[in-house]
Amino acid sequence: MAGTARDIVTPHLEAAIAEAEAAKYDADVVGRLFLEKAIQLFRTVRSNEDIAAELISSAENIDPDGDYMFMRP
């Protein structure tokens, strides 16, 4: 059994980063392309508004040490 979806995706992302770096591409390029492909995947089942809300929420909570907007003081 593969485990979680994260367990399935993570090794593929790590392999893509390693392959891209070996070909002299920055990991940032891989990230942008994964984001592009994720948005294409989202569009098969989600509305543009829902996708935008997901991206905005991710951007607003980008600091791993920051408090999330829904957290109480």
TrEMBL record:
<protein>
    <submittedName>
        <fullName>Conserved protein</fullName>
    </submittedName>
</protein>
